[in-house]
Amino acid sequence: MEDAGLATLRAAAASGDPEALYRLGNALVQRREMEEACAHHARAAAAGHAPAQIEYARMLLYGIGAEPAAGQAVHWLQRAEQAGNAVAAYYLALVAIGGVALPRDEAMNHRLQAAVRAGFPPAMRAAAIHFGRKPHPEDQRLCMRLLHDAAVRGDASCAALLAERLALGEGVPADPSAAARLRAAGVPALPRLAASTPRQMPCEARTLELRDALFAPSPETRSRRPYVAVVDDLLSADECRLLTATAQPALRKSMVNDPRTGENVANPIRTSSEAGIDPVSEDLALRIVQVRLAAAAGVDLANAEQLIVLRYAPGEEYRPHRDYITPRALEEDNPGAGNRTRTICVYLNIPEAGGETEFPMAGIRVAPKPGRALVFDNMIFDDQHPDGQLDPDSLHAGLPVQRGEKWLATLWLRQRRYRRF
């Protein structure tokens, strides 16, 4: 039975009042009655209610309570933006960075700037991390100010990044007491790391140009068959920390796919913990990181599965395995996108000992380093295999961590489009 509060909301919405419809839609989302929630948000959106237009657009983007429709979602976000809503501008920038439903053009920068000026914490987070990638002291000061202001507004990720910078003296003189006060207030500690300044295109100080953040240096080939390459300094320290901070609360035991049943099951071959970054929870900063990872692998983000962040405690490992998908599992996970043609992993910290990635058929090991990406092929494309063939020589292993812990993020890239936007 419905509670009295929901009944009251329904009575108010019966008049067709847009604010009442919006509030009812939000209440139904909390109850996970998504189809009805979507219908009420749609009615409020059609009546010109900007927050409802944003919520309806997000439901259309992710296929929540309705069939996914990125083009319609963009339409409603643009209507809200035209009404002066800076949050809608932020979501349009988030869509555009994917390069599918909107172009990656100058409008992304203007939209992000509008959302920052409005004090929207996810926008402040993306801008802070953008400025934090650049070595100029003015950019570093901007990064610290934005992290602080977003943390004051309750942004947990920015508070975690701010605490690490204060503790280590990044962007400002070290202030361990300020970092300790944040810890005492409940801000979680992150793995300690010192990443190099990421390689990027020359850019002016104090400029917000998102395309600068999408630049990916060329990989250094370590093996041609199987293909294995390394890209150093791809991510900044803030970006490595963002990934760990996002994943920490959602870690669960890693699973492997059973080739007989297609089910994911626990298996001693893989003893790590992991967190998948659900597209619904992706913010702009996370999307930018993933676009750059995909670019470093020479593949568009639209072909990528969801990002996976992994933690290996002492003694944990991933024994020799291959990343391509078995036919049974592929049938159940967007078979039209094809198999995993390429993998890119990025190390987020350095364990005290162990944790290298080994390719036994190539005879190489790659050591973890913050911001270092590892790119390798899972399939062969040549004159004999123009449509691709699974490569058994792509066998690789995450060697046991001997001391400390290892964090890394993995993006599996399909042959064709996997994402909607």
What would you say this structure looks like, in words?
With 421 residues, this protein is an alpha+beta fold. The protein has three domains: 4-115, Serine Threonine Protein Phosphatase 5, Tetratricopeptide repeat; 121-184; 210-414, Jelly Rolls. The protein has 14 helices and 18 strands. The protein has helices at residues 4-13, 18-30, 34-46, 50-62, 70-82, 86-96, 107-117, 121-132, 137-152, 156-168, 176-184, 237-247, 284-296, 327-331, and strands spanning 220-224, 227-231, 252-253, 256-257, 264-265, 273-276, 308-312, 318-321, 340-347, 353-354, 357-359, 364-366, 373-377, 379-380, 389-390, 396-398, 401-403, 406-414. The chain has an eight-stranded antiparallel sheet, with helices on one face. Strands 8-16-11-12 form a four-stranded antiparallel sheet, with no helix packed on it. A hairpin with a 4-residue loop joins strand 11 and strand 12 (364-366). The protein is globular, with a radius of gyration of 22 Å. Its cofactor is L-ascorbate.
